[in-house]
Amino acid sequence: MRISTTPFRVNGLRYRPPAKPLAVVCIDGCGPEYLEVSRYHGRMPHLDGLAEGGFETVVRGALPSFTNVNNACIVSGVPPSVTGISGNFFLDPRTGRQLMMNSSRYVRCDTILAAAARAGRKVAMVTAKEKLRDLLTKDLDGIAFSSERAAAATVETHGIENLEDLVGRPQPEIYSADASLFVLAAGARLIRRNLADFLFLSLTDYMQHKCSPESARSLDFHQALDREIGALLETGARVGVTADHGMNAKTRPDGSPNVVYLESLLRDRFGEGTRVVCPITDPYVVHHGSLGSSVMVHLAESLETAAVADWIRRLPGIDRVYDRTAASRELDLPADRIGDLVVMADAGAVIGRSPADHDLSVLNEPLRSHGGRHEVMVPMLLSEPLSGEYEARAAQGARNYEIFDYLCNGVQDRAGKWKE
Fold first, then answer.
1. Which uninterrupted H or E stretch holds 221?
2. Do 326 and 230 fall within a single domain?
3. Which of 104, 116, 289, 353, by CA, is between 20 and 30 Å from 308?
4. Does any domain span residue 43?
5. Quick one: pLDDT at residue 121?
6. Cα 128 from Cα 173, distance rounded (Å)
């Protein structure tokens, strides 16, 4: 089967895809410690081999360190200021309504996936969460489905059907390890059946929300993950592995959630009219109860931004407070889709609205979550070594959303020649 190597340009960068299948895996919620601990215990031999024969580093993701923000960046190769995706959830300034940002109509730029398909690649985007399938399919002519709703896929709506037969297992429960494993198994099958040769495979962070890196459940999950990545490597594909964000425990010494209920505190101090939006909010409340480490604050018109920001900075559990201009400049965020203030918690805390707005009964384990600076560093591994130029770039600090660039433009063969 001939695979197109036609270069394509998207968002200012030229990509040169290889004459072999290419797959990017986004392990949702995977801070470097998850892979380090699992590999230390001998649970990930395929990943060990990938690191030894290819390239491995730790890279910085986008902030806020949430799923939608980083997945949109990864498939576009650019920061949130260009994609327009500032969270899973935002307040529309035109209407004053809080909306889910889970549709491709919110994406403001082209994607690498759509451009690759136009250049002749057989593109497949497989996600665990249905919300990402909707978000990342802008102008995509290819296969796109989620493991969450795999049984409902049709050729007309998803570019493929009979997925349970293809993968050889039933549609998984979204609150399970299988939701991620199904994605990887589907990717390998798509390549082997010559249905796809340019893939983005995005998992779910249910297990990371529920399990610490050293727990038995986590070790078993990462062993299964490694087995599926091994099957992907056995197809001969050029494979890159990264993550959208990390994960931290957000509990007090007694194990209860360590929450700063910021909207309640602001109301008590400054009166009514200020709204706190939690950008982690999505349909998967069992993961995190809509509690993350970054929020957007929309101030009442009577309040002075600098004074409120200074007051918030002194609260226990708060790490950083940015006004709109600073957040746009320093965090590379779209200024019209964030609050008057962007507030981030420290490594051990999350920020909520008020106790009435968050149902903590859905959290059956101690709270683990993400969203701030302390969950922004993630692994990046490539199945083949880099050129000297790209190794030098990586040493200066790579970003998770550059992984398609590194795989398409930075990989060389063992003799140091470009693979075309």
1. helix 216-234
2. no
3. 289
4. yes
5. 98
6. 10
